[in-house]
Amino acid sequence: MFRLGDRPRQREVREADERNYINDTDLSSMLTHIELLGLPAKQTRTVVRDARRVELAGLGHPAVMRAWLIQAMTGRRASEVLMMDFEPLSDIPGLDAAAVPEGGMVARLRYQQTKIDTAPNTILVGRDVVEIIREQQVWVREHWHLGPADTIRYLFPKTTGNRHGTKSWETSNYNHVLKDFSHHLDLRDSHGEFLLYSRSHRLRHTKATTLINAGAPIHVVQRYLGHLSPEMTMRYAATLASTAEREFLALAKVGRDGREIGMDRRDMLDLVQLDRRTDRILPNGYCLLPPTRSCDKGNACHGCDHFATDRTFLPDIQRQLAETQSLVATRQARHTERYGDPMTGANVWLEQRNAEIRSMQLEIVALEAQPTDSTAVVRGAGVLGRTGYQDTANTSDSQGASRS
């Protein structure tokens, strides 16, 4: 009991802010372009900006690139990664790492718990994180002229004024490099806003939200993030309206390559509340956008991650595929007649049409494989129908992991 006015003030728990969450599309785009940060300044890479292809030079910061990737994959704070020991990995007792299938945990990572003294400071990681750490160790040994068995204090040592490697990268310098890279790349999010790699703490919020939306118990996520209380963890759990649809699709493990979502279309209609939004019923399928959101893609449904369809729409998709292929052939003939040369794959219009064609072909293959009376819904081919994603689709699925 307390006298009036003497009651201890309870710490206010801040609500999760969706702006701290990076959606799958934006994170995938950031991961796709992060290689430019580590590329030597003398090398260039082609990126698409405002539907135009431009050549950008690398920034020559491979260590910063690897630190950011570790943040994205593990949800660690920047300081926890930058201050890691040179050898932060250890074996998991009783585990044969060589026998672990792709996507499994193969090692224990020790990071520097820089915020809470008594909080955990280890997590389990997969081969992707282990490979990044090994690459960084090789890079450090080359730059500090170390022998195969030699080590220094930090995995991410400061590159100037640090002859003996006793100083780590500072977060201020790290963020400065990431900010310069963001402006150099000029990458925009799905809403057209500037994407800042230097806001790397968003990766921690994103990792927490992804784990919770995938069904991980809150105490497991709490341990993984190194928190002392579940209240701290829930501040990161942005389980908002716009992530509810992503949760459903992530758990289905389908989607973007035309495989079955694994539910009846009648259940799917209830899920996305199509009775309230008739504009979600399309001529060739369904739009899975949450009812509170509007579409800004026009009629480019086959290239959209929110598109789904079923066997009843198979004739419509087959007809649309034939019409698109005919349109491409006509435009290519006119281009050759006018300019004397065929339209190349670098043409933005042709690239978009080819992506739609690949997506529709994947959808048709999936739908034709179903029984004629099937009511199962399949996800549109989406991003895996785009150029550059075809060869990596099977690899990503076999690993059972996404880069979010």
From TrEMBL:
Which InterPro entries does this chain map to?
DNA_brk_join_enz, Integrase-like_cat_sf, Integrase_catalytic, Tyrosine_recombinase_XerCD
Record keywords: DNA recombination, DNA-binding
Q: Name one Pfam family in it.
A: Phage_integrase
Q: Name one GO molecular function term.
A: DNA binding
Residue span, Tyr recombinase domain = 38-250
- Xref: PROSITE patterns: TYR_RECOMBINASE
Instruction: Name the Gene Ontology biological process terms.
Output: DNA integration; DNA recombination
The entry's family comment says:
Belongs to the 'phage' integrase family.
Q: What is this protein called?
A: Putative transposase/phage integrase
